[in-house]
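Progress against Task 2.4 (sequence-to-structure conversion) is shown through the following example record, which the project officer requested during the mid-term review.
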Amino acid sequence: MTELWQMGALGLSAMIARREISPVDLMRDVLGRIGAVNGAVNAIVALRDRETLMGEARLAEAMPPDGWLHGIPVAVKDLVGVRGVPSSWGSPILKDNVPLVDDGLARRLRAAGAIIIGKTNVPAFGLGSHTVNPVYGATRNPYDPSKTAGGSSGGAAVALATRMLALADGSDMMGSLRNPAAWNNVYGFRPTAGLVPGEPRDSVFQHRLSTDGPMARDIDDLEHLLATLSDGAYRPGQGPVPRRPRIGWLGDWGGAYAMAPGILAQAETALGVMESLGWAVEPLRPPFAAEALWEAWCVLRQFAVAMTLGPYWREEAHQALLPAQAKWEITHGFARKVAEVEWAAETRIAWLGAAREMFARYDAVVLPATQLWPFAVDMRWPEVIDGHAMDSYHRWMEVVVPASLAGLPALALPAGFGADGLPAGVQMIGAPGADGMLMALGRAYHAATDWPGKNPPAL
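Structure tokens generated for the chain above:
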């Protein structure tokens, strides 16, 4: 019999509903799995007391199922406030923060029946696609623990890959769930901007640039979690399926994005799968100037981060505890002039217009999900890609900016493994509102590959 910790969320949900397994059995198995492997990867943090969790599982066992996640253990990304659970945002400033109420995402998971067992690790304040922070340390890649897990949803992706969780929530401002999905051989989905509600504390800029989204090992779980996170605004299985999907391959954006050796070739293996499914795949010229996208993105991101983290900057004791990434964003954000923000907003609108024209010809476009392979876990951030110097802490993730800047839906798909045995992935991007179609295409791709199911890490 398959171990319970190896199963997906929908399979567990059906077995609990039929009383074939109990939430107590599942909680015991999940906590056993965490005890066996989390020490090697450090993905789950702030794990709650075992007896308390077993008590909540017994309560779920005694009650009729109420919600598709009834009795299923989940850990929430540590950029979400959870009632009674340390919620640090990976920062020593908030290491003792224990919220009295849930953020909306946690409330929606509980309403679906989930038992929140703890948090998944993040970089401080979610900045930088490398999950390491002064509170909990680094999360390691399960395919090679000397390498990074990516980020900022690195803990979530590793917990999924190692079967400590059946599914996980992530968030994505600048590839924060696409990057770790690629580097841990799982799926991640950045929804159309606005589909998943934000929190009341989110600024307008922050919410339109960043969004919560689901992560899973298969598309069915991914879709159902999106429905939960969106508070029912998304319905699983409703996406139209084009008779012969038209896919545009953007590669390295006409040479604008530096790529490590092997990344493009690995991405092209995913395109080969798509062609084998009868999809029409063709190269696509860059639809917009990459440098304009980058500059507009930096202006808006800096402005948003400065608004969000500005209060910490203004307190001397807190300012000293901010990571270098936050200081960079805040100082640049405070220095921006109104005219620069206006230009960036206008560029964003122009790019969205160009993207709409592109999607009149293509159902989806594909880019690599990362520009390099997982790097050493003790590295601060990549400074060079294939001889090209990176001029900021995040320039090495520029490939995710087109979808983020326009608020486009993007599905991160596993694309197999390179010569060193490390995972890679691609991002399949659609027009605004094409979330269901991307899920339908992803389901066909998963049926043809099942990279997560066939290639779990050796831990």
